[in-house]
Fold this protein.
Amino acid sequence: RQSVLIAEQLVLLCINPQRGEFELGRSHADMDALAAAGLLLDLYEQKRLRFNKQHVAVDGKLPTTHPQLEAAAHVLSGPTNGLPIAAAIDLMVARLHPLAIHLLESLFRRDVLHRVRSSWWPFSPYRFPLRSLQARNEAIQQLSVAVKAETPSVRGLGLLVLVDLAGQLATSLAGLQHEAAADKVLHLGRARSSVAPDVELVFQLRQNF
């Protein structure tokens, strides 16, 4: 089974499971931009992205098994000196449009989501109701582990921050766990250090929204 991307776990946590449409708790949240940030974290997790002084550079030669990740690497591998994070996100949003929908389509092809027309009209947009509760629960588990961990993984911490930027933390985590998650995101800057590039990358991504 193809592994689930950070960006895919993000979109899973941002759709209404029954209706299959995005539900964002912040009016200014841009799902495509958040998905692009998720793909940056995926490239970093797979050691295909270098991060230095708020710039990212991608090695486009290394293979990947995921088409969406391959497309992102191709878009970003042009500038040899890298790009500022904001420019990298903007470039992916423009060149991979509509990015968030592409990720939902990918999950549909792997039987994680259903795909249905939103009305009887043959050209009406698709909705993507949840099919695999397990996949959504695994994404929520990533958040739970990140909240409890002293040094969370780039996947867990990144997902936590992006779900918060989408305004969906309260939908995924309840009670004290939600409070602890919100506190962790709020004080992310305190965890930054030269020996923790993972945290620094996630912090800089958060600063761009």
